[in-house]
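Reopening this ticket.

The earlier resolution said the output was attached, but the attachment link was broken on my side. Pasting everything inline this time so it's all in one place.
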Amino acid sequence: MAYVQVLPEYGLVVDPMVGIVTTAGVSYTPVLEQVAELEKITDDLVGMLSGEGNFLASFPNREGILNVAGGVTAFWYGMAVGLLIAGVVVLGLL
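Inline output:
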């Protein structure tokens, strides 16, 4: 791969494939690919907060499943806390 020299006395070149200034022999292409992958993952995590849409690695036709899962989870946590409070009240009356 060819580089365009920017400042030869400092060893700085431009990587024409990526378009950024680097030191000679060092390419930031693998780093930029990993950053792009992390951006996809963070967009997926932020998208989960709305409860709509689809996970990045989920099966098709699973849109809106986060709302259902959140409702079921809230129901079971509510049952557990409610039964715990009811048990404490019953034991307190004995």
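Reporter confirms the inline version is readable. Strands lie at 4-7, 12-15, 20-23. The mean pLDDT is 85.
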